Amino acid sequence: MPDRADLRVLVVDDEPLVRQGLRLILDGEPGITVVGEAGDGAAALTAVGQLSPDVVCMDVRMPGIDGIRAAEIILSRPHPPRILIITTFAADDYVFAALRAGASGFVLKRATADELITAVRAVAVGDSLLFPTAVRDVARARHRSETYAGPALTAREREVLAAMAEGLSNAAIADRLVLGVETIRTHVAAVLRKLGARDRTHAVVIAYAQGLVRLP
Q1: Does the reported pTM lie above 0.85?
Q2: Domain 145-209 class, CATH top level
Q3: Which residues of the chain form CATH 3.40.50.2300?
Q4: How far is CA 203 from each of CA 13, 51, 100, 123, rounded to the nearest angstrom?
């Protein structure tokens, strides 16, 4: 969780009414402040540099620089914010591409206010996978047969990765494997490093795509 008292959120969507709706929901929640809005990917890149948000709520289908390319650029910068994709259809090539690029999760535009707020807080914390069933379904719909060629994961790291794919928090994984939470944090960090993943969601998407975790 960021050190600041309030989570700073940037809202990015090419539809003004959608931006207004997201702002009204999030600004009304204690501990969350919408620090700005952007109408496309190019404006989002500028706003992120100027406003230093903790979370960027971003549409993927936008004119000019779309949400995927914007996410790639933002996440290539030092100390990037978390990116929460706001989308109409979950099983969309855009969503899978955004997750592969390193977005921390996604939420549907038809989600309730409580679901949106939960999603923003979840990606900010990053301790567990946001909506693991939905992420699995997206991965299944867009699965590619790839072969993992990175550093070998230990048996314990594979166990931890499988539990991450279920959406378990560090504490829940520690209970399952009868290990300390700090030990689990060490294993999670090793998994992220070996997979070249930005966070848990990114690691799980890579794991599904490359056969490190089986799609049920």
Answers
A1: no
A2: mainly alpha
A3: 7-125
A4: 26, 28, 9, 14
